[in-house]
Specification:
Layout: H1 3-19, H2 34-38, E1 55-62, E2 74-79, H3 91-95, H4 100-107, E3 109-119, E4 125-139, H5 142-174, H6 179-197, H7 202-216, H8 228-241, H9 244-257, E5 260-273, E6 282-295, E7 303-314, H10 316-322, E8 331-342, E9 346-365, E10 371-392, E11 395-403, E12 415-425
Antiparallel strand pairs: 1-2, 1-12, 2-3, 3-4, 4-5, 5-6, 6-7, 7-8, 8-9, 9-10, 10-11, 11-12
Length: 439
């Protein structure tokens, strides 16, 4: 195998195995699907971007009830078809799809939710289903792309240096009787390669090779006839000291967190079965969301801010029939902000959202017989805090507490005390990224 092929092989292994080691490239987030939102199972108005999980399932239990505690009987599913197969994406294609259509298809997900606690106006529970769709558009900028390119170049250089040094160390060790002799023959070559493959100048490279030599004294005892373990441990030191490992960890973190601006677009519809018969149902309400999110980086990489715009409209005939004593508006417009702090295994978020409700109510006719309407409106406000904890990479538990909008189905009940459990399956891994593919 020539040096060029060896460099390519080591680069592929470094990115595909050392870099990701089959780690998931997408962190599971707290449950947040359009279908569960429109059924009121999740009172939050902010619809956070879905993680790259092929399938997510969520259970919800509301602690506020007549029996003080309710076993989870509300559930939601969300399915992302794109990640059911390997598309052979390069790293750049994974991070920066070429056009909006690619993003729409890749990030598209379909959600389903079910509840047996959809209250009617007579306080009777009925069954309800909801269906939802959403997708996320990531807005990259030139600085992001340049940084990604630079990071990949750093990783490639580190992998290339590792391959070249591997071809030098083995014969040098085989011809050196002891560790001092090995370093006498190898140190200058190491310094030269550090200068060639990193940003270090001759002086700093010489200092770095000296530090590597000093640290190598703590390795496995040097044996000229069996140097394989010594070589592997020495290569690990070189890789770490020349920032190859640091670059890999930073890039892995970047791929998971996706800094910068993203825009979530979603739609959901609720389907109610007031008589609990399959052949008799209503579509009582529908919603659309537009949710811009911005994740900060560097010293503020734990912080994310989201704005929400949600338009919700109602089928008034349903509410007139089953909620005769309730005032029902034709539509709501929700608007507000959410601030979230994410750490290694847990996150804390707080949202504050306002609501404007509007209707046109018949007000008789004019002298010509034309029907007249008057406008009716109302406003409301909700604030909810949520704590989430990643039990594992595939399981996350969350608890929400706060004050919600007063809803038609639960008039007067504004307290939020909600426990959620989310399971994720099929997140993309290194197998879904073609690390040898040229961009």
């Amino acid at each position: 195998m020539n040096i060029k092929n060896l460099i390519t092989l080591v680069f592929v292994l470094a990115i595909g195995m050392t870099l990701y080691a089959q780690k998931k490239l997408s962190k599971l987030e707290a449950p947040s699907s359009p279908a569960s939102h429109i059924l009121g199972m999740q009172p939050s108005a902010v619809l956070n971007p879905k993680s790259y999980q092929t399938l997510e399932t969520a259970l919800f239990s509301n602690f506020v009830s007549e029996n003080d505690f309710v076993l989870p009987n509300d559930f939601a599913l969300e399915f992302t078809p794109y990640w059911t197969k390997n598309h052979g994406l390069s790293i750049t294609e994974y991070l920066y799809p070429e056009n909006a259509i690619d993003q729409l298809v890749r990030n598209a997900s379909f959600s389903l939710a079910s509840t047996q606690n959809f209250k009617l106006g007579d306080d009777m529970n009925s069954n309800a289903l909801a269906f939802g769709f959403r997708t996320t558009f990531y807005v990259s900028n030139k600085a992001d792309r340049e940084k990604t390119k630079a990071d990949l170049q750093t990783i490639y250089n580190a992998s290339s240096m590792r391959a070249v040094l591997g071809s030098i160390i083995a014969p040098t060790a085989a011809s050196s009787a002891d560790l001092d002799t090995f370093w006498l023959n190898f140190q200058n070559k190491l310094t030269e390669k550090i200068v060639e493959y990193t940003d270090n100048g001759p002086e700093s490279a010489a200092k770095l090779s000296g530090e590597i030599r000093k640290e190598s004294k703590n390795l496995t005892s040097y044996d000229q006839n069996n140097t394989s373990q010594f070589i592997q441990e020495l290569m690990d030191i070189i890789y770490r000291k020349t920032d190859g490992e640091t670059a890999i960890n930073a890039f892995e973190d970047y791929m998971k967190k996706r800094y910068g601006l993203s825009i979530d677009v979603a739609y959901a519809a609720a389907l109610n079965f007031p008589t609990k018969k399959f052949d008799f149902s209503y579509l009582p309400r529908q919603s659309v969301w537009v949710t811009p999110n911005y994740r900060f980086k560097d010293n503020l990489d734990f912080l994310k801010i989201a704005a929400v715009f949600r338009y919700e409209w109602y089928f008034r005939d349903f509410y007139t029939r089953y909620f005769p004593n309730q005032e029902v508006f034709e539509n709501n417009i929700d608007y507000g902000l959410e601030l979230e702090s994410q750490f290694k295994r847990f996150s804390i978020s707080f949202e504050a959202v306002g609501r404007s409700a509007n209707s046109q109510i018949p007000a008789g006719t004019d002298v010509s017989g034309n029907e007249l309407f008057r406008k009716d409106s109302d406003s409301d406000f909700q604030y909810i805090g949520t704590f989430s904890y990643n039990i594992t990479e595939s399981i996350i538990v969350s608890y929400s507490f706060g004050n919600r909008f007063e809803t038609i189905e639960n008039s007067g009940e504004t307290l939020v005390s909600l426990l959620g459990l989310n399971f994720g399956f099929g997140a993309p891994t290194s197998d879904d990224i073609d690390t040898a593919k040229s961009d």
